Amino acid sequence: xxxxLRNAQRAVPVRRAPLRRAVxxxxxxxxxxxxxxxxxxxGNGLMQRLNGAYRQCPEPxxxxxxxxxxxxxxxxxxxxxxxxxxxxxxxxxxEYIHQQCRATGEDFDSVLxxxxxxxxxxxxxxxxxxxG
Length: 132
What we know:
Layout: E1 3-7, H1 16-29, E2 36-42, H2 44-55, E3 63-67, E4 86-93, H3 94-104, H4 108-114, H5 124-131
Helix pairs in contact: 1-4
């Protein structure tokens, strides 16, 4: 299925192709290629509002996920119809991640392509894709 990628911020330039490839590779590795997923690149303002509204922590963050299904860790959803082949949405705080990279000297594009699989999200994107 598809990866819907939207850049909802203007603070930091985002190379979308490597990011899309990384998410597609992760979905394939997890056996979730048949599911749609939304990936939104967000600035600090949006991440702060979402984090405050949904986690009662009104500050920017690196990754927020909004699953379509509620399933146990390590399980994939069992859709009953085509419209349920959806994992949900993942918001990447690209401005926040960029600030962290500047502070640590890491390459932003490399970190962004791996966010959630390793450093910035501490595995949250991978966990989100398999547990919802």
